[in-house]
Automatic annotation (TrEMBL):
Keywords: Signal. This is Polysaccharide lyase-like protein. InterPro entries: Polysacc_lyase (IPR025975). Gene3D superfamilies: 2.60.120.200. Residues 1-26 form the signal peptide. It comes from Streptomyces formicae. Residues 84-103 are annotated as: Disordered.
Length: 270
């Protein structure tokens, strides 16, 4: 190889490194500057608990209610629910979910300012056609502990994805049309200022396939985000599939599978 070729290859390599470094810097800036990462669940080691002690994995009993799949450089987690089969139920409802309720870094307290980021892939998802049952599937929740209803969740609804806070009566579409994105990774970001008075906020952004950055989708400011109905002093995250109100009798899709990866909790209070 001629020296000049070597040199230009080296230069190209350096340029690539610089590009990667500036991308990383841009990404870090976008991630909130000095934000500290509290918890990362990336399934790199190919285990259902991603190597995190006390991460709650599915309580559903079916062998394939949750499993790890190859994804990108490592792995992601799948949750599966088949309606009408008790192997895919827990607490009497069709669901299969992982949760941070017993992970100290994954717990939520009043006063926290957190950023939640996570990737979702709707696996071979049967999309909605007019006349189909329009009951939704919950794919990510910020929950109060103690049997309380969620503070917020994201759910598929017909061919969209909606953000909801059921107790506050908030609902907005954050992905208009999922059909181009079935079997592709969508990334979500939810910033929450956790308060038990009306000074909190929810701020939702998305990064859809082909997009280089996050797009703000909806903000709710000056809301009470920590609002359990039963006494509790903490909250936590849940991801997977929860299919409340769905049944074969209603004609809902019998089996759904969703993948999640790179779930991150960042501290924005610093
Ligand atoms: Ca991964």
């Amino acid at each position: 190889m001629k020296r000049t070729t070597k040199r230009s290859l080296a230069a190209a390599g350096l340029a690539g490194l610089l590009a990667a470094a500036s991308l990383a810097t841009a990404e870090a800036g976008q991630d909130g500057g000095g934000a500290t990462t509290l918890l990362t669940v990336d399934y790199q080691n190919g285990r259902l608990d991603s190597g995190i002690p006390k991460l709650t994995t599915t309580h559903a009993k079916a062998d394939d209610a949750s499993y790890v799949v190859d994804s990108g450089p490592d792995h992601a987690v799948a949750h599966k629910v088949t309606l009408g089969d008790s192997g895919y139920e827990s607490d009497g409802a069709p669901r299969s979910e992982s949760a941070t309720n017993d992970v100290p870094e994954g717990r939520i307290h009043v006063g926290d300012e957190h950023r939640y980021e996570f990737s979702v892939l709707l696996k071979d998802w049967k999309t909605y056609e007019p006349g189909d049952s329009d009951t939704g599937d919950i794919i990510f929740q910020g929950k109060h502990a103690g049997g309380n209803r969620p503070s917020f969740y994201l759910m598929t609804k017909r061919n969209s994805i909606a953000f909801r806070s059921p107790l506050l009566g908030l609902q907005s579409t954050v992905v208009d049309d999922i059909r181009p994105y079935v079997n592709r990774w969508m990334r979500f970001r939810v910033d929450v200022k956790w308060t038990d008075d009306s000074t909190g906020h929810y701020r939702i952004s998305t990064r859809l396939p082909g997009e280089s950055g996050f797009t703000p989708r909806r903000s709710y400011d000056d809301v009470r985000t920590f609002h359990p109905e039963n006494p509790t002093d903490f909250g936590y995250l849940k991801w997977g599939l929860y299919r409340p109100d769905e049944s074969l009798e209603k004609g809902d899709v019998p089996t759904r599978v969703v993948l999640h990866d790179d779930i991150r909790i960042l501290d924005l209070s610093g």
